[in-house]
Automatic annotation (TrEMBL):
Residues 509-651 form the PTS EIIA type-2 domain. Residues 408-498 form the PTS EIIB type-2 domain. The keyword Transit peptide does not apply. Keywords: Activator, Repeat, Transcription, Transcription regulation, Transferase. InterPro entries: BglG_antiterminators, HTH_11, Mga_HTH, PRD, PRD_sf, PTrfase/Anion_transptr, PTS_EIIA_type-2_dom, PTS_EIIB-like_sf. One of its GO terms (biological process) is phosphoenolpyruvate-dependent sugar phosphotransferase system. Residues 186-291, 296-403 form the PRD domain. PANTHER family: CRYPTIC BETA-GLUCOSIDE BGL OPERON ANTITERMINATOR (PTHR30185), LICABCH OPERON REGULATOR-RELATED (PTHR30185:SF13). Pfam families: HTH_11, Mga, PRD, PTS_EIIA_2. GO terms for molecular function: protein-N(PI)-phosphohistidine-sugar phosphotransferase activity. This is Lichenan operon transcriptional antiterminator.
Length: 654
C-alpha cells in the first residue's frame, strides 16, 4: 500500500481519530480549508489505508468517523507513516505551526536564527514574524516572553515551572497530543510505567478524593519533569507564592512521588521540584461526591461564596443565598478552582462551547461570580473556569424549573364517568409522584372554598370559576411531556394573581405594558438610559435612585449580549412587581464593542411577590430571543407596543 504523499493527510487521519465522529464542515472551519478539500483529503486517506485495517466512513448529518477494524495493524501502520514525515510536514493549521515554534523555543538553550527556522518550516520570514507575535501574546498568560537581538536570534524567558505548564496545557492539546507530542513527552521512557504504578498505589493509600483526570494530569507532570531534566532543564528555584504549598496534605503526597521518581528513574531532583509535583494535586477538579470528612472548607471560601450570591442578588435580583445544595457545591468547587487560579494552572473545558450556548443564563450568573473571585484574589478567571462555575448555577436553574415540590394537593374534576376519572388519576399519579394527594370531584361537587386549598386543579371540562389556584384543562390522551411544560408555565406565577397565565406564556409580554415601550432617536447608550429612566420616574414606575443603580451596575458588568441585545437591570424600590421596559433605538448604538439594536430593561422589585423562578425564566426568555435572529428581527421591527405583543404571543403559542 502507498503512504499518502502529503504529510497533512496523516495529520488529518490523526485529527479525525482524536475527535471521534465530527462534521466535515467543522473540520473545514477548524483547519481553514474548504469542505471540498477536506473531502479530497478523506478520499486520499481511504486510498492510503487498507480497507481491512481502517477507513473513514460517512455518518448521518455530514459527519465522518475513523473506523478501525484491526487495531494492532493500524498502530503499526501509524508508526511507519509517522516515520515517513517530519513534524513540519504534518502541520495543517496556523495554530499548529505556532505550537511548533513554541516547542523549538522551549527546548533550545541558545538563540534561534529566524532565517534558518523559517526555511526549515517552509514558510516566509514575514509569516514567522507574525507567528512569533501571536505566540508572544499567548505566552504572557504564563509570564513568559520572547526576547530577541539582531544578528543573534530569538529566545524564551520565563520560569521552568511556567515552561512546563505551557507544554502540558498548550502543547499537549490538539495536534501534538495526537502524535504523542512527537517525543516532547516520551511515555515509553524506561522506568516511567513503574513510577506510574507506584503513584497509583500512593493515591489509593492517601485520603484525598480525586477523579481519573487527576491521575492523568499527574502522569503528564511526571513525564514532562523526566523529559526536561534529562534535557538539562531543572526547577532550580521557585517563586515565593509556592512556599505556602508546603503546609498542605497534597505536598506530603508530592514528597512521596518526588522520592519515587528519583529512585526509579535514577535522576537527581532539586527540592523545588516538590512544589511542581504538588500542582496537579492542588489543581484537581472537585470529585463527584463532596468529601466533607477530608476536605475542610475555609471561612475565606465560605465568605467568598456568600459574597458571590449577594452580588448575584444585588445585580440580578435573584435571591439564591439560602439554597444549601448550591452553596455547598460552589464552596467545594471554588476551593479547588482558587488553587488553579492563584498558581496559574489553566484547565481544559471541552464543554465550553456547549455550556455558553445551552446554558446562557447560568453562564451570565457565573460571569458575576468570576468578577467577585477576580477582585478577591487579583487573578484572571478564564472562560473555561467560568463555564465550570456555570454548571453549578445551571443545576440550580434546572432544579427550580422542574421541581413540583410545591404541588402536594391536586384536585381532579371529571364529568365523563368513573373509568375516565380512574385513568386520569393513575396517569397524574405516575406524572406527579405517589406522594401527591389527588382528590377526584364531579362537576356538581365543586366547592370554591375547598378548591382554594389545593395547589393545582386539573379538569376535563371548562371551568367558569374565579380561583387563585392554577387550572389546567386536559383529556385522557394528554402527552406527559406537554403536560409537564404546561404545569411549569402555569404554576410558575401562581403567587401573582394579577398575571393570568395560560398553558403557553410569554413572561416578557406580561411584564411590559404600553407606557414601558419606547422608541428613541438618541445615539448614545447611556443617554438613552438616562432619558427613558427619567420618563419612568415621572410616571412613578421607578424610584429616584434607580438610574444610579443601573449605571453602577453597567460600570461593573456591561449587559450586552449576542445579536445587539442589551439587558440593563437593577432593583427598583418604586415597584411591587417585575416589569420590563423595551427600548428600540432608530439606529444601532455602539456600546462596549457591541452594536445595540434593542434594550430590555428589567425593573426588579426589592421584594418580589412572584417566586424566584419567574425572574429566572424572564432572563432565559430574553436570552432565547437573543439567539433567534428571526424572532429578534420581528421584535425590533415592531411599530408599536401592540405589534410587539402580537409577536411575543405568537411565539409563545408555538
Amino acid at each position: 500500500m502507498g503512504f499518502p504523499a502529503d504529510g497533512r493527510v496523516l495529520g488529518l487521519i490523526l485529527k479525525i481519530y482524536n475527535r471521534g465522529n465530527i462534521r466535515i464542515s467543522d473540520l473545514a472551519e477548524e483547519l481553514n480549508l474548504s469542505t471540498r478539500t477536506i473531502r479530497n483529503y478523506i478520499k486520499n486517506i481511504n486510498e492510503a489505508l487498507p480497507s481491512v485495517i481502517a477507513q473513514v466512513v460517512s455518518l448521518k448529518g455530514a459527519e465522518v468517523e475513523l473506523c478501525i477494524y484491526d487495531h494492532e495493524k493500524y498502530d503499526e501502520l501509524m508508526k511507519r507513516m509517522k516515520e515517513q514525515f517530519t513534524e513540519q510536514e504534518m502541520i495543517i493549521t496556523p495554530e499548529e505551526r505556532i505550537k511548533y515554534v513554541a516547542k523549538i523555543l522551549l527546548y533550545s538553550k541558545d538563540p534561534i536564527n529566524m532565517d534558518e527556522l523559517s526555511e526549515s518550516m517552509f514558510i516566509g520570514r514575514t509569516t514567522l514574524v507574525n507567528d512569533i507575535k501571536k505566540l508572544g501574546n499567548a505566552l504572557t498568560t504564563y509570564n513568559m516572553y520572547i526576547k530577541g537581538k539582531p544578528n543573534t536570534g530569538v529566545w524564551l524567558e520565563g520560569s521552568e515551572i511556567a515552561k512546563r505548564q505551557f507544554i502540558i496545557e498548550v502543547l499537549s492539546r490538539g495536534y501534538y497530543n495526537m502524535i504523542g507530542l512527537n517525543n516532547i513527552i516520551k511515555e515509553d521512557e524506561p522506568g516511567l510505567e513503574i513510577v506510574f504504578k507506584e503513584v497509583d498505589k500512593v493515591f489509593k493509600e492517601s485520603n484525598i478524593m480525586h477523579l481519573d483526570e487527576t491521575t492523568k494530569l499527574t502522569r503528564k507532570y511526571i513525564m514532562v519533569l523526566a523529559d526536561r531534566i534529562k534535557k538539562g532543564f531543572d526547577v532550580v528555584n521557585s517563586e515565593k507564592k509556592y512556599e505556602v504549598l508546603s503546609t498542605t496534605e497534597e505536598y506530603k503526597i508530592a514528597e512521596v512521588i518526588f522520592k519515587l521518581i528519583g529512585k526509579k528513574l535514577d535522576i537527581n531532583l532539586k527540592e523545588a521540584e516538590k512544589y511542581y509535583l504538588t500542582l496537579p494535586l492542588i489543581a484537581r477538579n472537585a470529585s463527584i461526591k463532596i468529601d466533607s470528612n477530608n476536605i475542610e472548607i475555609s471561612n475565606s471560601i465560605k465568605n467568598l461564596v456568600a459574597r458571590i450570591l449577594d452580588e448575584i442578588s444585588n445585580t440580578m435580583g435573584i435571591q439564591i443565598k439560602y439554597d444549601k445544595e448550591l452553596m455547598a457545591g460552589l464552596e467545594y468547587h471554588i476551593n479547588f478552582a482558587v488553587n488553579r487560579l492563584v498558581f496559574n494552572i489553566n484547565t481544559e473545558n471541552p464543554m465550553l462551547y456547549d455550556i455558553k450556548r445551552k446554558y446562557t443564563f447560568p453562564y451570565e450568573m457565573a460571569k458575576v461570580a468570576a468578577k467577585v473571585i477576580e477582585r478577591t484574589y487579583s487573578v484572571k478567571v478564564t472562560e473555561e473556569e467560568t463555564a465550570f462555575l456555570a454548571l453549578h448555577f445551571g443545576s440550580y436553574v434546572e432544579k427550580i424549573n422542574t421541581e413540583n415540590d410545591d404541588i402536594n394537593r391536586v384536585a381532579l374534576i371529571c364529568s365523563t364517568g368513573l373509568g375516565t376519572a380512574k385513568l386520569l388519576f393513575i396517569k397524574l399519579r405516575n406524572l406527579l409522584g405517589n406522594d401527591k394527594i389527588i382528590n377526584t370531584f364531579s362537576e356538581n361537587e365543586i366547592d370554591l372554598e375547598e378548591l382554594e386549598t389545593y395547589d393545582m386543579i386539573f379538569t376535563t371540562i371548562p371551568l367558569k370559576i374565579e380561583t387563585t389556584t392554577p387550572i389546567i384543562q386536559l383529556d385522557i390522551f394528554f402527552e406527559e411531556d406537554e403536560l409537564r411544560k404546561r404545569i411549569k408555565n402555569r404554576f410558575v406565577m401562581r403567587k401573582n394573581a394579577a398575571w393570568e397565565v395560560g398553558s403557553n406564556v410569554s413572561i416578557v409580554n406580561m411584564a411590559t405594558k404600553p407606557n414601558l415601550f419606547f422608541k428613541t432617536n438618541l445615539d448614545d447608550y447611556i443617554d438613552i438610559l438616562k432619558e427613558i429612566i427619567g420618563k419612568l420616574f415621572n410616571q412613578r414606575e421607578v424610584d429616584e435612585g434607580y438610574l444610579d443603580r443601573v449605571l453602577d451596575r453597567e460600570a461593573t458588568y456591561p449587559t450586552t449580549f449576542a445579536n445587539g441585545v442589551a439587558m440593563p437591570h437593577a432593583i427598583n424600590k418604586g415597584g411591587e412587581r417585575l416589569m420590563i421596559s423595551i427600548i428600540i433605538p432608530e439606529k444601532e448604538v455602539n456600546y462596549e464593542n457591541s452594536a445595540v439594536r434593542i434594550i430590555f430593561m428589567l425593573l426588579i422589585p426589592e421584594i418580589m411577590d412572584e417566586s424566584p423562578e419567574v425572574l429566572i425564566k424572564t432572563y432565559e426568555e430574553i436570552l432565547k430571543i437573543c439567539q433567534n435572529e428571526d424572532l429578534l428581527g420581528k421584535v425590533i421591527n415592531a411599530k408599536d407596543y401592540f405589534e410587539l405583543t402580537n409577536v411575543l404571543v405568537k411565539e409563545a403559542l408555538k
